[in-house]
UniProtKB/TrEMBL annotation:
Keywords: DNA-binding, Transcription, Transcription regulation. Coiled coil: none annotated. Pfam families: AraC_binding, HTH_18. Residues 197-295 form the HTH araC/xylS-type domain. GO terms for molecular function: DNA-binding transcription factor activity; sequence-specific DNA binding. This is AraC family transcriptional regulator. The keyword Methyltransferase does not apply. The keyword Transcription applies.
Length: 301
């Protein structure tokens, strides 16, 4: 299991990059030490791999276009392929640790176009209305599945026939997820997530430039009115609020990982003068950019 303390992205997008996933067996498990992530959160992102997780300690909140979901210790869930989501620590007393399986659906399906893929895998991963399936131990329908997820992390690479054992375990988990999701798959599908990804990609590629709402809307071939609606429905922010949030995320990364002056970082992130940058930064994080840099350099040291 790989310990992770930050998120990496494919260049120019908010699609998460998993460098340890290989084509021969597209799977990885990770232990996310969320308190060690910048600002104790994982920003808005997506990944084509599905995600199955359990909260080992602490508590956290997942944000999706469907709303907010709180996960205390012992709870878990499923994040669908390409679903937009963000994670944030909400426990200030205990370390928040999350165990995750991340895998391509081919790990549990048979040959491409085969019966398992077409009848049991694709109906779930292609149903865009299902972004997240939360699982809680006080729900009798979830107890067995949470127990399976917890035990699946006891499978180690050193075990005999590791890949077979893991595939069998993930398949059993998938069976329960497929059963639980059956009633949900009767809901009407929308394509807001596709529009949202196009607009987010535009912002991530042009955040350092002067951007207006019309530019963001045009990237998804929609009107400004539709642009506002999609942002509000998907991530509960306006387009410009998300733009400023992303600019501040980029500024945080540069403060942590470079020695560039604050003034230069402000301009490179599209946040303007150092005074304007500092005002926005302090309002968002409760400290100045220099104080933030000192805090994280001291922490890493």
């Amino acid at each position: 299991m790989k310990n992770i303390q930050k998120i990496e992205f494919h260049c120019g997008t908010k699609e998460e990059l998993f460098s340890s996933i290989t084509d021969s067996f597209p799977y990885m498990s990770s232990c996310a030490e969320l308190d060690k992530f910048p600002n104790r959160c994982v920003p808005w992102h997506w990944h084509k791999e599905v995600e199955v997780f359990i909260v080992e300690s602490g508590s956290l909140i997942y944000y999706t276009s469907d709303g907010e979901y709180i996960f205390p210790k012992g709870s878990g869930g499923f994040i669908n392929s390409n679903a937009l989501h963000m994670t944030k620590v909400i426990d200030n007393k205990n370390a928040t640790i999350q165990f995750l399986h991340l895998f391509d659906s081919s790990v549990i399906s048979d040959k491409k176009g085969g019966k398992i893929e077409t009848e049991y895998v694709n109906p779930l991963i292609n149903f865009k209305q299902i972004k997240i399936i939360p699982l809680y131990p006080d729900n009798d329908n979830h107890k067995d599945l949470l127990n399976l997820i917890s035990k699946s992390f006891d499978i180690h690479e050193s075990d005999f026939a590791y890949e077979l054992k893991l595939r069998n375990s993930l398949s059993e988990i998938w069976y329960h997820l497929f059963e639980i999701s059956k009633p949900i798959r009767n809901i009407q599908i929308d394509n807001n997530s596709d529009k949202m990804r196009l607009m987010m990609i535009y912002i991530h590629e042009h955040y350092h430039e002067k951007i207006k709402t019309i530019n963001i809307a045009s990237s998804a071939f929609v009107s400004e009115r539709v642009c506002f609606r999609v942002f509000k429905e998907c991530i509960h922010m306006s387009p410009l609020e998300y733009l400023n949030s992303y600019r501040l995320q980029r500024a945080c990364a540069m403060l942590m990982n470079t020695s560039k002056p604050v003034t230069m970082i402000g301009y490179e992130c599209g946040l303007g003068t150092s005074s304007h940058f500092s005002d926005l930064f302090k309002k968002e994080f409760g400290c100045t950019p220099l104080q933030y840099r000192y805090k994280w350099q001291k922490y890493n040291f």
